[in-house]
Design goal:
InterPro entries: F-box-like_dom_sf, F-box_dom, SCF_subunit_WD-repeat, WD40/YVTN_repeat-like_dom_sf, WD40_PAC1, WD40_repeat_CS, WD40_repeat_dom_sf, WD40_rpt
Protein name: F-box domain-containing protein
Pfam families: F-box-like, WD40
Structural class: alpha+beta
Keywords: Repeat, Ubl conjugation pathway, WD repeat
Organism: Thamnidium elegans
Strand content: 25-35%
Distance between the termini: 87 Å
Length: 566
């Protein structure tokens, strides 16, 4: 004869799993027992008997007992019941819904809500601290603006232990190191997010530690570049020397001398440093030993700017020409077209396009395969000191005027009552207009449909950001050459600028250093300290390093935890 044991059924409140997870329930039971122990033994038995009778009663009997107790209760007892019952009626959905639905609900929360949820109890903390949730949070915010909240968090470089090929931060290099190389995957993603949240908040609130390096150059500084991963800063000066600094301590590691005139430009990677001078030459150095490896000659006037990648080196000169040097073949060819000093050259990521700016007030886009000028951008009213093309994945709201009008028409059409019918001639005309004027922008991957729809308000169109002595910063379409927006804020000419996916920093002849929101083009803060023209600037995820024509070097560190006196 088989005996089947009936599995006991529990209501939601008395589910063993729920009781086990609720520390407050245990505290209540303990408190009741302590109060009961203070009573006479006879009274204890009577109360225990009442509780036992209620627990063993059926549902209808329990209801009848409660009605009798309520009818016999006075106002103080009824008030206690009213205050006590409400929190007891709350339901923990995590014990009712399947785990997949619970996880999806938590995935819809922002970072603050997840942190608040983690404080409910241990069970909720386990759910809210789930690594996949925080990985998704990092993907939404790190090195880009979140389409929901508008916040962006910086990438943080790890101090390099093993040498790998990376491009350091420089005043005109905007390619970033892939996130996979910079983030320690063994760390919980919540810790990664928290670390970057502190830095991101410092950028927004203008909280930084500022320090000035000892004067080592005998004259004004013309150029600089730094790399946090390698912990070095290299500066070039009118005094004909380049100095290698320890970025963290400010100690001078090495002084490189050999040029006959001022060093106007430099760039380094893991193995070499290239400098350009007004003595018409470029020099390639081993900056770890101070040895000059090679001297490149060819310009007939001073070298004002250079830029290189793994394949080619481009140099712009006061002789109004640009030379392209091939590292692999040794070949060199010249690009002509500018009529005055070439102030800036920048190789686009594909090595087939070059962007240059000049004292003639123009920006030129060059086709390096055909070795000719593909487009000329005119709009600045004075010499253009710098022009930098955007990096891959750079999202912005600098739309073309036609696109802005088309988007406005779409919003008006969607909000109008007649938009649902779509039968009028006016609707047909509007449809044709918006279809022909809106380019299709690449879509970013997103975890939900709302993010995808909001992404339509941002463009991944490649742009050029330029700074000029006409006091303005302009954003240009790399594809069409159209000026998309002009940024105003400086009262004197702009000598230098640098930007990444979150910030833009610009230095002016009046000694001001301005920090801009790169997505909207709005000024955020002014970094004070310089008393003369800011001639060089570079930024990373946590720092802005700037120098002026009096030889002062300032480091603004946003990775700090306390506010700096400004």
């Amino acid at each position: 004869m088989n005996c089947t044991t009936k599995t006991p059924t529990y209501c939601y409140r008395h589910s063993p799993e729920l009781i086990k997870s609720r520390n407050k329930e245990d505290e209540t039971t303990t408190h009741l027992q302590n109060e009961l122990n203070l009573l006479p033994l006879t009274t204890q038995h009577q109360i225990t008997s009442i509780w036992s009778t209620y627990q063993t009663a059926t549902k209808d009997q329990r209801l009848l007992i409660l009605k009798g107790i309520l009818s016999s209760s006075c106002t103080p007892q009824l008030s206690y019941i009213s205050n006590t019952v409400k929190p007891l009626l709350r339901t923990d959905f995590t014990f009712i819904f399947p785990p997949e639905i619970t996880k999806h609900i938590f995935s819809l929360l922002d970072a603050s809500s997840l942190c608040a949820a983690a404080q409910v109890n241990l069970h909720w903390k386990t759910l809210a601290d789930d690594d996949t949730l925080w990985h998704r949070m990092c993907e939404q915010h790190i090195n880009k603006k979140c389409v929901k909240c508008g916040w962006g968090l910086p990438l943080l470089q790890k101090r390099k232990v093993i040498r790998v090929q990376k491009r350091p931060a420089t005043e005109d290099m905007c390619e970033e190191v892939p996130a996979a190389k910079r983030i320690d995957q063994r760390r919980p993603w919540k810790d990664v997010y928290s670390e970057r949240l502190v830095v991101g908040r410092n950028w927004r609130r203008n909280h930084f530690n500022s320090r000035v390096l000892d004067h080592q150059h005998k004259s004004g500084i013309t150029t600089l570049q730094f790399c946090e991963a390698q912990n070095i800063l290299i500066t070039g000066s009118y005094d004909k020397s380049a100095i290698v600094w320890n970025l963290e301590t400010g100690q001078v590691l090495r002084r490189l001398e050999g040029h006959a005139r001022a060093i106007r430009t430099l760039q380094f990677d893991d193995t070499k440093l290239v400098t350009g001078s007004m003595d018409n030459t470029l020099r390639i150095w081993n900056y770890q030993t101070g040895q000059c490896i090679r001297t490149l000659e060819g310009h007939t006037d001073g070298v004002v700017h250079l830029n290189f990648n793994c394949r080619i080196l481009a140099s712009g000169s006061a002789d109004a020409t640009i030379k392209i040097w091939n590292f692999q073949t040794g070949e060199c060819f010249t690009l002509t077209g500018h009529t005055k000093v070439v102030n800036h050259v920048s190789i686009h990521k594909d090595s087939t396009t070059l962007v240059s700016s000049s004292d003639d007030g123009s920006i030129r886009i060059w086709d390096l395969e055909r070795r000719c000028c593909a487009r000329i951008l005119n709009g600045h009213m004075a010499p253009v000191q710098t022009a930098i093309p955007s990096m891959t994945g750079f999202l912005h709201t600098f739309f073309q005027p036609q696109l802005k009008k088309a988007k406005l028409l779409i919003k008006q059409r969607q909000s109008s009552p007649s938009s649902s019918s779509g039968s009028s001639d006016e609707d047909d005309t509007m449809t044709m207009t918006t279809t022909t004027t809106i380019p299709k922008f690449p879509k970013r991957r997103s975890s939900n449909s709302s993010s995808k729809s909001e992404d339509c308000d941002r463009s991944s169109e490649q742009v050029i950001i330029s700074g000029s002595l006409d006091n303005t910063i302009k954003i240009w379409s790399l594809e069409t050459g159209e000026c998309l927006q002009t940024l105003f804020g400086h009262v004197q000419g702009i000598w230098t600028l640098a930007y990444d996916k979150l910030h833009l920093v610009s230095g002016s002849h009046d000694g001001s250093l301005k920090l801009w929101d790169i997505e909207s083009g709005l000024p955020m803060h002014c970094l004070d300290g310089h008393t003369s023209a800011v001639t060089a600037v570079a930024l990373s995820d946590t720092k802005v390093v700037s120098a002026d024509d009096k030889g002062q070097i300032r480091i603004f560190d946003f990775g700090c935890t306390s506010k700096s006196p400004v």
